[in-house]
Every structure is written in C-alpha cells, then in structure tokens.
Design a protein that fits this description.
Strand content: 5-15%
Structural class: alpha/beta
Number of helices: 9
Largest sheet: 7 strands, parallel
Order of helices and strands: HEHEHEHEHEHEHHHE
Helix content: 40-55%
Radius of gyration: 18 Å
Strand order of the largest sheet: 3-2-1-4-5-6-7
Shape: globular
Number of strands: 7
Oligomer: single chain
Mean pLDDT: 88
Low-confidence stretches: 1-22
Length: 277
C-alpha cells in the first residue's frame, strides 16, 4: 500500500514534443505525453484519438487497413494535431510489434494505451459459435490487449507513470442473445481490467475500463438502426438519444490525466443510464 501511495505522487518524467498548431494546447492536460490507441480510425477509437491529441498528447492511431489509417492520420494532421499511424491487426504478433516500434519512433517511451480494437464476426447465439469464431473473438477482444500491454510495459515504466484504458461493452452487463460469444468476451474484459489494475499499481500504472452503451457507430449499426430495439432501450435509458463517439472520448482523456490519479480498476459505463447498483 505504501509503495503504491508514494507512486501516485511521483513527479512526471517530461518529453519534448513540438506543438505548432492552434488545435493543440501546449499547456494541455496531456501535453508532452504519448498515447497508443488501437482500432482508432473511426467511431469511438477515432474520437478518443482526436480528444487525446487535442488535449496535448502525441497519438499513434491504428487499424487493420492502410487506407483507413491514411484517412484518419490525414484528417487529424489536417486539424493540426500531433498524430501518426500504422496498420495493426491486434491479433497478429508481428502487427503488435510494428505498432510498438511506431510509437517509439517519436520518443523513448509511451504513457497511455487505449485498447479499443474489437471484433464480432457472428450475430447469433453462444452455442451457434464455431471454434474458429470463439478463437477470433477471444484473441482480439481479450488476449490481444494483454499481449500488447506486455510489449509496451517496459516503455511505459520508463515514463514514471502511465494509464491503460480497456474498452468493454454494455453487453457485459446486459447481454443480448444475438451477440453470443461477444458478450462473454466483453465480460472477460471487465475481469482483465480488475486483475491488471492490481498487478500494475505498484508500477504506477493505472488500468480502467470504458464500458460504452449504445453508441452511433458502424460497429453498432445492427442495433441503433433497429427501431424495435431502440424503442425498448429508451424505456430504460430515459435520455431519449443515442450516444455519440465523443461522449466516450472525454472520459478517456480524464482517465489518462493527473485528475484521475487515484482512480484504478474501475469499469465506467457511458450509456445514458447505469446497469449497476
């Protein structure tokens, strides 16, 4: 306990980053920090990458397709943000290695890891999922964040303090039959968050989890364009609107910032309602 407590107040280790655009606040809360965001060329991941960069961080974006990476980097750099990108299928070891190398080209360390990449190759029941589907879902949604973090950890430790944000789903708390194995994988991410938080706290690295509800993205199109589902959800949610990717981005920036230095191991729902007590 004493070691963790002392670590919470350890001074930050600086990094020189050139900040030349009005979109980047040189006094931003994340200035001189480096963030890696997976699955970040559209939707929630893209909104997170943009917000972290706006708050001063240098951000490394990634996704599976080069054209998506190129488009995201061009858009964000066009806004004057400090962003680079690379192709990365997080389920492939060689791609994870390249992502780490890209991040280290900018500096000698990494401060933040946001694991947003996820897959759901099957709309259907748990018992209808093949072994191949199970392997793909668990490899990308559960194993990959842990394996990528293991590769980045030495470089995060150098920086003196860091933050990891995993991304689960409201389906971890309120599973849908149609999402089958995906529900299970996102429930596992909640447990992964708690376990990693305990393991990394002595290293001054905090681990928390973003749990999005219904957010308007291509990934959730099957749900947010389903009028019956949306009408049912409105009876629970009460806010009467679908979430936007930007609704998640501010929370992630906060969880990376010094303002959240005493928050660790939390699974935080952004859904317009709370599925918990």
């Amino acid at each position: 306990m004493l070691r963790v407590y002392q670590g919470l107040f350890r001074p930050y280790v600086g990094l020189s980053v050139r900040l030349s655009s009005s979109r980047i606040d040189p006094k931003g809360i994340l200035a001189n920090r480096v963030a890696v965001v997976t699955g970040s060329t559209d939707g929630i991941g893209f909104a997170i990458a943009r917000r972290l960069a706006e708050d001063g961080a240098h951000v490394v974006v990634s996704s599976r397709k080069q054209q998506n990476v190129d488009r995201a980097v061009a858009t964000l750099q066009g806004e004057g943000l400090s962003v680079v990108g690379t192709v990365c299928h997080v389920g492939k070891a060689e791609d994870r290695k390249r992502l780490v190398a890209t991040a280290l080209e900018h500096s000698s360390g990494v401060d933040f890891l946001v694991c947003n990449a996820g897959v759901n190759p099957l709309v259907g029941s748990i018992l209808g999922a093949s072994e191949q589907v199970w392997d793909k879902i668990l490899d990308v949604n559960v194993k990959a964040p842990a394996l990528l973090l293991r590769q980045l950890l030495p470089h995060m430790e150098k920086r003196g303090r860091g933050a990891v944000i995993l991304v689960s789903s409201i389906s971890a708390y309120m599973p849908l039959v149609e999402l089958g194995a995906y529900n299970v994988s996102k429930t596992a991410v909640l447990g992964l968050t708690r376990s990693l938080a305990l393991e990394l706290a002595p290293k001054d690295i905090r681990v928390n989890c973003l749990v999005p509800g219904l957010i308007k993205t291509d990934f959730s199109r099957m749900l947010h364009e389903n009028e019956t589902f949306w009408n049912s959800l409105k009876q629970i949610q009460k806010l009467q609107r679908i979430g936007q990717p930007e609704d998640c981005a501010g929370l992630v920036s906060f969880l990376c910032s010094p303002d959240s230095s005493y928050i660790n191991g939390e699974n935080i729902v952004v859904a317009g309602f709370s599925p918990q007590l």
